Amino acid sequence: MSRFFTSTLASLEPYTPGEQLKRPDLVKLNANENPYPPAPGVAAAVAGTVEGLRLYSDLTANSLCSAIARHCGVSEENILCGNGSDENLLLALRAFCDENHPLAFADITYSFYPVLCDLLHIPMHILPLEDDFTIDLSKYCGLDETIVIANPNAPTSLLAPRDAIEEVVRSNPGHVVIVDEAYIAFAGPDASCVPLTKKYDNLLVVRTFSKSHNLAGARLGYCVGHPDLIADMNRVKFSYSPYNVNSMTQAAGLASINDEEYFRTVTAKICKTRDESAEKLRARGFRVLDSAANFLFVTSDKLACGEIFRRLRERGVLIRYFNAPRIDNYLRITIGTPEQMDRFFAELDAILQQ
Fold first, then answer.
1. How many C-beta atoms surround the C-beta of residue 242 within 10 A?
2. Counting Cβ atoms within 10 Å, is residue 218 exposed (0-12), middle (13-18) or buried (19+)?
3. Out of 83-92, 236-245, 252-261, 341-350, which region has the weakest mean confidence (pLDDT)?
4. For residue 101, what is the enclosing H or E element?
5. d(CA 288, CA 332)
6. Rounded-to-integer distance, Cα 146 and Cα 148, Å
7. What is the reported pTM?
8. What backbone torsions phi and psi does residue 75 show, to the nearest 5 degrees?
9. CA distance 212 to 264
10. Is the dihedral of CA 162, 165, 170, 176 positive or negative?
11. Which of 21, 251, 316, 338 could form a disulfide with 45 if both were Cys (CB 3.0 to 4.6 A apart)?
12. What is the pLDDT of residues 71-100, one digit of tens each?
Protein backbone atom coordinates (compact mmCIF):
# COMPACT_ATOMS: atom_id res chain seq x y z
CA MET A 1 0.00 0.00 0.00
CA SER A 2 1.09 3.59 -0.48
CA ARG A 3 2.13 5.89 2.37
CA PHE A 4 -1.06 7.87 1.74
CA PHE A 5 -3.46 5.01 2.52
CA THR A 6 -5.55 5.90 5.56
CA SER A 7 -4.36 4.23 8.74
CA THR A 8 -7.92 3.32 9.68
CA LEU A 9 -8.03 0.91 6.71
CA ALA A 10 -4.47 -0.36 6.90
CA SER A 11 -5.62 -3.69 8.31
CA LEU A 12 -8.46 -4.14 5.81
CA GLU A 13 -8.58 -7.64 4.32
CA PRO A 14 -10.24 -7.25 0.91
CA TYR A 15 -12.79 -9.73 -0.39
CA THR A 16 -11.22 -12.50 -2.47
CA PRO A 17 -13.35 -13.26 -5.54
CA GLY A 18 -13.26 -16.47 -7.52
CA GLU A 19 -10.19 -16.82 -9.72
CA GLN A 20 -10.59 -15.66 -13.33
CA LEU A 21 -8.19 -17.62 -15.53
CA LYS A 22 -7.93 -17.09 -19.28
CA ARG A 23 -7.42 -20.33 -21.19
CA PRO A 24 -9.51 -21.78 -24.03
CA ASP A 25 -10.17 -25.20 -22.49
CA LEU A 26 -11.14 -23.90 -19.04
CA VAL A 27 -14.12 -25.35 -17.16
CA LYS A 28 -15.02 -22.59 -14.74
CA LEU A 29 -16.88 -23.92 -11.70
CA ASN A 30 -15.52 -21.57 -9.05
CA ALA A 31 -17.66 -18.41 -8.97
CA ASN A 32 -21.26 -19.69 -8.85
CA GLU A 33 -22.00 -18.13 -12.22
CA ASN A 34 -24.89 -19.44 -14.29
CA PRO A 35 -23.55 -21.71 -17.08
CA TYR A 36 -26.32 -20.82 -19.52
CA PRO A 37 -26.62 -17.65 -21.65
CA PRO A 38 -29.00 -14.83 -20.74
CA ALA A 39 -32.62 -14.92 -21.88
CA PRO A 40 -33.03 -14.68 -25.67
CA GLY A 41 -34.33 -11.11 -25.63
CA VAL A 42 -31.50 -9.63 -23.58
CA ALA A 43 -29.05 -8.91 -26.44
CA ALA A 44 -31.61 -6.98 -28.49
CA ALA A 45 -32.76 -5.06 -25.41
CA VAL A 46 -29.20 -3.99 -24.62
CA ALA A 47 -28.54 -3.01 -28.25
CA GLY A 48 -31.66 -0.86 -28.20
CA THR A 49 -30.16 1.39 -25.52
CA VAL A 50 -27.14 2.49 -27.56
CA GLU A 51 -28.68 5.65 -28.99
CA GLY A 52 -29.71 6.82 -25.55
CA LEU A 53 -26.32 6.30 -23.91
CA ARG A 54 -25.57 10.02 -24.26
CA LEU A 55 -28.17 10.55 -21.51
CA TYR A 56 -28.04 9.54 -17.87
CA SER A 57 -29.87 6.38 -16.98
CA ASP A 58 -33.23 6.46 -15.18
CA LEU A 59 -32.11 7.04 -11.62
CA THR A 60 -35.27 5.36 -10.28
CA ALA A 61 -35.03 2.37 -12.67
CA ASN A 62 -38.79 2.70 -12.83
CA SER A 63 -39.57 0.13 -15.55
CA LEU A 64 -37.20 -2.41 -14.07
CA CYS A 65 -38.49 -1.93 -10.53
CA SER A 66 -42.06 -2.39 -11.79
CA ALA A 67 -41.13 -5.67 -13.48
CA ILE A 68 -39.29 -6.91 -10.40
CA ALA A 69 -42.27 -5.97 -8.24
CA ARG A 70 -44.57 -8.05 -10.44
CA HIS A 71 -42.10 -10.94 -10.32
CA CYS A 72 -41.99 -10.79 -6.50
CA GLY A 73 -45.68 -10.03 -5.91
CA VAL A 74 -45.05 -6.72 -4.16
CA SER A 75 -45.46 -3.03 -4.97
CA GLU A 76 -42.90 -0.94 -6.84
CA GLU A 77 -42.26 1.14 -3.72
CA ASN A 78 -40.91 -2.04 -2.08
CA ILE A 79 -38.05 -2.37 -4.61
CA LEU A 80 -34.57 -0.83 -4.89
CA CYS A 81 -32.05 -1.72 -7.60
CA GLY A 82 -28.28 -1.52 -7.41
CA ASN A 83 -25.05 -2.76 -8.97
CA GLY A 84 -25.31 -6.34 -7.82
CA SER A 85 -26.33 -7.47 -4.36
CA ASP A 86 -22.93 -6.35 -3.06
CA GLU A 87 -23.74 -2.69 -3.57
CA ASN A 88 -27.17 -3.15 -2.03
CA LEU A 89 -25.58 -4.79 1.00
CA LEU A 90 -23.23 -1.82 1.29
CA LEU A 91 -26.16 0.60 1.11
CA ALA A 92 -28.06 -1.36 3.74
CA LEU A 93 -25.14 -1.51 6.17
CA ARG A 94 -24.41 2.17 5.61
CA ALA A 95 -28.04 2.99 6.35
CA PHE A 96 -28.71 0.68 9.30
CA CYS A 97 -25.33 0.19 11.05
CA ASP A 98 -22.56 2.42 12.33
CA GLU A 99 -19.76 2.45 14.90
CA ASN A 100 -22.32 2.03 17.69
CA HIS A 101 -24.65 -0.44 15.96
CA PRO A 102 -22.98 -3.79 15.20
CA LEU A 103 -23.82 -6.36 12.56
CA ALA A 104 -24.44 -9.97 13.58
CA PHE A 105 -23.73 -12.85 11.19
CA ALA A 106 -22.39 -16.40 11.06
CA ASP A 107 -18.72 -17.32 11.21
CA ILE A 108 -18.95 -19.32 7.97
CA THR A 109 -20.94 -17.33 5.43
CA TYR A 110 -20.47 -14.84 2.60
CA SER A 111 -17.04 -13.36 3.24
CA PHE A 112 -18.04 -9.94 1.93
CA TYR A 113 -19.90 -9.18 5.19
CA PRO A 114 -16.75 -8.74 7.34
CA VAL A 115 -15.08 -6.77 4.55
CA LEU A 116 -17.99 -4.31 4.52
CA CYS A 117 -17.86 -4.05 8.29
CA ASP A 118 -14.15 -3.23 8.22
CA LEU A 119 -14.65 -0.72 5.43
CA LEU A 120 -17.53 1.04 7.20
CA HIS A 121 -16.11 0.69 10.74
CA ILE A 122 -19.02 -1.44 11.91
CA PRO A 123 -18.45 -3.74 14.92
CA MET A 124 -19.03 -7.43 14.16
CA HIS A 125 -20.92 -9.94 16.28
CA ILE A 126 -19.95 -13.32 14.84
CA LEU A 127 -21.99 -16.37 15.82
CA PRO A 128 -20.53 -19.82 15.01
CA LEU A 129 -22.49 -22.27 12.91
CA GLU A 130 -23.18 -25.68 14.45
CA ASP A 131 -20.75 -28.57 13.95
CA ASP A 132 -22.79 -29.75 10.95
CA PHE A 133 -22.72 -26.21 9.48
CA THR A 134 -26.42 -25.59 10.12
CA ILE A 135 -27.41 -22.25 11.60
CA ASP A 136 -29.17 -22.22 14.98
CA LEU A 137 -31.42 -19.22 14.46
CA SER A 138 -32.60 -19.26 18.06
CA LYS A 139 -29.23 -17.65 18.87
CA TYR A 140 -30.27 -14.64 16.77
CA CYS A 141 -33.61 -14.11 18.48
CA GLY A 142 -33.76 -11.03 20.68
CA LEU A 143 -30.22 -9.89 19.83
CA ASP A 144 -31.35 -6.29 19.34
CA GLU A 145 -28.73 -5.87 16.63
CA THR A 146 -28.78 -5.56 12.88
CA ILE A 147 -28.53 -9.08 11.47
CA VAL A 148 -27.64 -10.53 8.08
CA ILE A 149 -28.52 -14.12 7.21
CA ALA A 150 -27.48 -15.67 3.90
CA ASN A 151 -30.21 -18.13 2.93
CA PRO A 152 -29.26 -20.47 1.35
CA ASN A 153 -25.94 -19.94 3.02
CA ALA A 154 -22.68 -19.70 1.12
CA PRO A 155 -20.41 -21.57 0.94
CA THR A 156 -22.26 -24.28 2.90
CA SER A 157 -25.28 -24.43 0.49
CA LEU A 158 -27.72 -25.12 3.35
CA LEU A 159 -31.21 -23.64 3.61
CA ALA A 160 -32.74 -22.42 6.87
CA PRO A 161 -36.52 -22.72 7.31
CA ARG A 162 -38.51 -19.57 6.66
CA ASP A 163 -40.49 -19.84 9.90
CA ALA A 164 -37.25 -19.80 11.92
CA ILE A 165 -36.10 -16.67 10.09
CA GLU A 166 -39.49 -15.09 10.72
CA GLU A 167 -38.99 -15.63 14.46
CA VAL A 168 -35.66 -13.80 14.23
CA VAL A 169 -37.38 -10.88 12.49
CA ARG A 170 -40.28 -10.85 14.95
CA SER A 171 -38.00 -10.96 18.01
CA ASN A 172 -35.79 -8.06 16.85
CA PRO A 173 -38.39 -5.36 16.14
CA GLY A 174 -35.99 -2.48 16.80
CA HIS A 175 -33.40 -3.57 14.23
CA VAL A 176 -33.27 -4.53 10.58
CA VAL A 177 -32.86 -8.17 9.63
CA ILE A 178 -31.27 -8.60 6.19
CA VAL A 179 -31.85 -11.89 4.40
CA ASP A 180 -29.41 -12.41 1.53
CA GLU A 181 -31.23 -14.58 -1.01
CA ALA A 182 -28.63 -14.71 -3.77
CA TYR A 183 -29.34 -18.41 -4.35
CA ILE A 184 -33.01 -18.65 -3.40
CA ALA A 185 -34.18 -19.53 -6.92
CA PHE A 186 -32.55 -22.95 -6.54
CA ALA A 187 -34.13 -23.69 -3.14
CA GLY A 188 -37.58 -24.76 -4.27
CA PRO A 189 -41.03 -23.33 -3.47
CA ASP A 190 -41.94 -21.47 -0.27
CA ALA A 191 -38.32 -20.85 0.69
CA SER A 192 -38.13 -17.10 0.12
CA CYS A 193 -38.74 -14.53 2.84
CA VAL A 194 -40.11 -11.98 0.35
CA PRO A 195 -43.75 -12.63 1.44
CA LEU A 196 -42.75 -11.70 4.99
CA THR A 197 -41.80 -8.17 3.87
CA LYS A 198 -45.55 -7.44 3.73
CA LYS A 199 -45.82 -8.34 7.42
CA TYR A 200 -42.67 -6.84 8.98
CA ASP A 201 -41.23 -3.36 8.54
CA ASN A 202 -37.75 -4.45 9.71
CA LEU A 203 -37.11 -7.14 7.08
CA LEU A 204 -34.97 -6.48 4.02
CA VAL A 205 -34.48 -9.20 1.39
CA VAL A 206 -31.47 -8.83 -0.93
CA ARG A 207 -31.35 -10.62 -4.29
CA THR A 208 -29.21 -10.70 -7.41
CA PHE A 209 -29.58 -11.27 -11.15
CA SER A 210 -26.11 -12.86 -11.24
CA LYS A 211 -27.06 -16.44 -10.40
CA SER A 212 -30.60 -17.30 -11.47
CA HIS A 213 -31.01 -14.71 -14.25
CA ASN A 214 -27.65 -15.33 -15.99
CA LEU A 215 -26.41 -11.73 -15.70
CA ALA A 216 -23.33 -11.82 -13.47
CA GLY A 217 -21.45 -9.56 -15.89
CA ALA A 218 -24.22 -6.97 -15.94
CA ARG A 219 -23.91 -6.30 -12.18
CA LEU A 220 -27.54 -6.04 -11.14
CA GLY A 221 -29.25 -6.73 -7.85
CA TYR A 222 -32.31 -5.61 -5.96
CA CYS A 223 -33.81 -5.33 -2.49
CA VAL A 224 -37.35 -6.01 -1.31
CA GLY A 225 -38.53 -4.34 1.86
CA HIS A 226 -40.86 -1.88 3.56
CA PRO A 227 -41.06 1.45 1.69
CA ASP A 228 -39.41 3.23 4.61
CA LEU A 229 -36.36 0.94 4.41
CA ILE A 230 -36.15 1.47 0.66
CA ALA A 231 -36.40 5.24 1.17
CA ASP A 232 -33.54 5.11 3.69
CA MET A 233 -31.32 3.24 1.26
CA ASN A 234 -32.22 5.54 -1.61
CA ARG A 235 -31.23 8.48 0.56
CA VAL A 236 -27.78 6.95 0.95
CA LYS A 237 -27.57 5.99 -2.74
CA PHE A 238 -28.64 9.40 -4.03
CA SER A 239 -25.99 11.01 -1.83
CA TYR A 240 -23.13 9.43 -3.77
CA SER A 241 -24.27 7.51 -6.87
CA PRO A 242 -27.81 8.34 -8.02
CA TYR A 243 -27.39 6.89 -11.53
CA ASN A 244 -25.78 3.72 -10.26
CA VAL A 245 -27.56 1.23 -12.56
CA ASN A 246 -26.66 2.03 -16.16
CA SER A 247 -29.15 1.97 -19.04
CA MET A 248 -27.78 -1.21 -20.63
CA THR A 249 -28.00 -3.14 -17.37
CA GLN A 250 -31.53 -1.89 -16.74
CA ALA A 251 -32.57 -3.06 -20.21
CA ALA A 252 -30.89 -6.45 -19.71
CA GLY A 253 -32.57 -6.91 -16.36
CA LEU A 254 -35.99 -5.97 -17.71
CA ALA A 255 -35.76 -8.40 -20.63
CA SER A 256 -34.47 -11.13 -18.37
CA ILE A 257 -37.04 -10.91 -15.61
CA ASN A 258 -39.92 -10.65 -18.08
CA ASP A 259 -38.99 -14.04 -19.57
CA GLU A 260 -40.37 -16.21 -16.79
CA GLU A 261 -40.42 -19.39 -18.90
CA TYR A 262 -36.70 -19.16 -19.65
CA PHE A 263 -35.97 -18.47 -15.97
CA ARG A 264 -37.92 -21.56 -14.86
CA THR A 265 -36.40 -23.78 -17.56
CA VAL A 266 -32.79 -22.85 -16.80
CA THR A 267 -33.29 -23.06 -13.04
CA ALA A 268 -34.79 -26.54 -13.37
CA LYS A 269 -31.85 -27.68 -15.52
CA ILE A 270 -29.34 -26.50 -12.93
CA CYS A 271 -31.21 -28.14 -10.05
CA LYS A 272 -31.37 -31.43 -11.96
CA THR A 273 -27.65 -31.36 -12.75
CA ARG A 274 -26.91 -30.37 -9.13
CA ASP A 275 -28.77 -33.35 -7.70
CA GLU A 276 -27.20 -35.76 -10.18
CA SER A 277 -23.73 -34.39 -9.46
CA ALA A 278 -24.25 -34.72 -5.71
CA GLU A 279 -25.08 -38.40 -6.10
CA LYS A 280 -22.05 -38.97 -8.33
CA LEU A 281 -19.78 -37.38 -5.72
CA ARG A 282 -21.31 -39.44 -2.92
CA ALA A 283 -20.73 -42.55 -5.00
CA ARG A 284 -17.05 -41.58 -5.11
CA GLY A 285 -16.89 -41.36 -1.33
CA PHE A 286 -17.35 -37.60 -0.89
CA ARG A 287 -19.46 -36.13 1.85
CA VAL A 288 -21.85 -33.68 0.16
CA LEU A 289 -24.02 -31.26 2.10
CA ASP A 290 -27.66 -31.01 1.02
CA SER A 291 -27.63 -28.12 -1.43
CA ALA A 292 -30.36 -25.54 -1.97
CA ALA A 293 -28.08 -23.46 -4.20
CA ASN A 294 -26.38 -23.72 -7.59
CA PHE A 295 -23.25 -25.22 -6.06
CA LEU A 296 -22.15 -28.14 -3.89
CA PHE A 297 -20.09 -28.01 -0.69
CA VAL A 298 -18.11 -31.21 -0.31
CA THR A 299 -15.25 -32.88 1.53
CA SER A 300 -13.25 -36.09 1.18
CA ASP A 301 -10.86 -38.17 3.23
CA LYS A 302 -9.39 -39.82 0.13
CA LEU A 303 -7.21 -36.85 -0.77
CA ALA A 304 -6.77 -33.43 0.82
CA CYS A 305 -9.21 -30.98 -0.72
CA GLY A 306 -6.48 -28.42 -1.25
CA GLU A 307 -4.62 -30.98 -3.34
CA ILE A 308 -7.75 -31.87 -5.35
CA PHE A 309 -8.23 -28.16 -6.05
CA ARG A 310 -4.62 -27.75 -7.16
CA ARG A 311 -4.61 -30.78 -9.46
CA LEU A 312 -7.94 -29.88 -11.05
CA ARG A 313 -6.64 -26.38 -11.69
CA GLU A 314 -3.62 -27.83 -13.48
CA ARG A 315 -6.04 -29.78 -15.68
CA GLY A 316 -8.09 -26.71 -16.57
CA VAL A 317 -10.98 -27.17 -14.12
CA LEU A 318 -11.51 -24.39 -11.62
CA ILE A 319 -13.43 -24.98 -8.39
CA ARG A 320 -13.22 -23.06 -5.09
CA TYR A 321 -11.02 -23.97 -2.14
CA PHE A 322 -11.25 -22.01 1.11
CA ASN A 323 -8.12 -22.07 3.23
CA ALA A 324 -10.07 -20.92 6.27
CA PRO A 325 -10.81 -22.18 9.78
CA ARG A 326 -13.28 -25.10 9.96
CA ILE A 327 -13.59 -25.42 6.16
CA ASP A 328 -9.97 -25.92 5.12
CA ASN A 329 -10.74 -29.42 3.84
CA TYR A 330 -13.85 -28.50 1.86
CA LEU A 331 -14.49 -27.60 -1.77
CA ARG A 332 -17.23 -25.54 -3.36
CA ILE A 333 -18.22 -26.72 -6.82
CA THR A 334 -20.44 -24.56 -9.02
CA ILE A 335 -22.96 -26.48 -11.10
CA GLY A 336 -22.19 -26.16 -14.79
CA THR A 337 -23.82 -27.62 -17.86
CA PRO A 338 -23.98 -31.44 -18.08
CA GLU A 339 -21.03 -31.31 -20.48
CA GLN A 340 -18.97 -29.22 -18.05
CA MET A 341 -19.79 -31.57 -15.19
CA ASP A 342 -18.77 -34.57 -17.33
CA ARG A 343 -15.38 -32.93 -17.83
CA PHE A 344 -15.14 -32.21 -14.10
CA PHE A 345 -15.83 -35.83 -13.19
CA ALA A 346 -13.44 -37.16 -15.83
CA GLU A 347 -10.61 -35.04 -14.47
CA LEU A 348 -11.58 -35.80 -10.86
CA ASP A 349 -11.54 -39.55 -11.52
CA ALA A 350 -8.13 -39.28 -13.15
CA ILE A 351 -6.81 -37.52 -10.03
CA LEU A 352 -8.36 -39.98 -7.59
CA GLN A 353 -6.91 -42.94 -9.51
CA GLN A 354 -3.33 -41.62 -9.42
1. 12
2. buried
3. 236-245
4. none
5. 10
6. 7
7. 0.95
8. -90, 160
9. 9
10. negative
11. 251
12. 999 999 999 999 999 999 999 999 999 999
